[in-house]
Amino acid sequence: MKQVVTCQEMKSCDSYTIEKMGVPSCVLMERAALKVVEELEKRFTTENIKQKILCVCGSGNNGGDGVAIARILHQHGYQSAIYLAGNPDHRTEEMQRQCQIAVNYQVSVVNNLHSEEYTTIVDAIFGVGLTREIKGEYRELIAELNEMPGWKVAVDLPSGVDGDTGAELGIAFHADLTVTFAFRKAGLCLYPGRKLAGQVVVADVGIYREDGAEPKLFLMEKSDLRELPEKEADGNKGTFGKILAVAGSSGMCGAAFLSASGVFATGAGMIKIVTPEENRIPLQTMLPEAMISCTGDWGKDFEWCDVLVIGPGIGMTVKAADKVEFFLKKAKQEKKQVVLDADGLNLLAENPKWKNYLGRHVILTPHMGEMSRLTGKSIRELKSDRAGAARALAAETGVVCVLKDACTVTAAPDGRAWISLSGNAGMATAGSGDVLSGVLAGMQAMYLETPVEEKDAGFYAALGVLLHGAGGDQAAMRKGMAGMKAGDIACGVAEILKEQQNFGETKF
Predict the structure, then answer these.
(1) 217-229: per-residue pLDDT in tens?
(2) CA 277, 283, 284, 290: dihedral to nearest 10 degrees?
(3) In terms of C-beta distances under 8 Å and separation of at least 24 residues, what long-range contacts does 106-109 make, across chains too?
């Protein structure tokens, strides 16, 4: 798990390093430039062509990085040139210093982007401070750079990408590689910034957080799955968790099946599906390992379980609403963990009084449409700040919010949030969210011995999102993104967990 920063946090880290720790700004700039050159040279050695590099530099410190990059490349024997954008009167002190050093080393400065056929274009126009839409000459410049042939490299952030939200501020540089400094910026994790950045390398340049400063945003990594507890050798199906899935409606059992498949894929011991009688035979045929309850004795079903999934395919009828409210209310009273998904979320949006049943024991899993209905905000507004939207709902209701999108954000009510980069476009298929609801419930079942009030449900949910995405990646390798289905994701989850297990020497 890696720390991720907002632009304001990055500025605070810069200031702390320079003002409190005494590292001069020019030293950090040199380190940053050297790291970019290091990454460039790693890739240059694999190509049998003579490199011609153009560094396009703005008037701020990001531009200073670019000038230093061109100068170091020049010193290393490459043909490099500098193109200076913006008003010279607006150059920062460090940018002016770097320009003078470049003059001293006789680095070429060009006024015409097309004076040479460049093999590499380095974007050092704007850094993390950009918040406004790009217009006028800068817009024309970036558009021209995007049209130019050659390999494209961004310094810290692609110019035009909002460092906090990943939004494209009117126009943005299309990078093949982004070398960012100290920490990955949130905008490099969230779309469209994630796509515009290309490959992202985080370079250590000697900038760190102030002692005692607690990070609030994290990037999940596959290695985090090692945190999952191993199955106890002397356990049984009861100790590994009993999950109740309140799912499916008359004649509609697919969502219930897929959610239950996600539960089993994570290693939970037992699952019971509360569903209409019409679904009994299809579900018993497709998933004989599951128990089916159609009696209507909801109290007995509730007492049986440890964790609940409520909502997949349940429908929007009055009976469905009664069922959802019953289980939400009981879970609040008994402090049992709940994953509320799909139609359960839509019914919650229609019954705002149910928010009284929410709290730290509940995980909400809205996609953008469901989130819009829950919050009253437009999808466009939500996408402009995914992490902020997830955090706001978590803080308001006390739940863990898993905001599903191409890049899913998990937020806890204490302000922490986790971003997962696992997964792929093939997961945009019917039933993928149902599998996730089961995986999240199975994940909570791994920690049954921990009291609800002590559980780090946010982190466990983030692990579940990571696992679900990794399962999707596994499915894509087997089936391809075009041909994979939701059931393949559940199979992929089981395969990923198998990779994490260490069976050691088998003794008979």
Answers:
(1) 999 999 999 888 8
(2) -100
(3) 106/74, 107/67, 107/70, 107/71, 107/74, 107/80, 107/81, 107/82, 108/74, 108/80, 108/81, 108/82, 109/81, 109/82, 109/83, 109/84
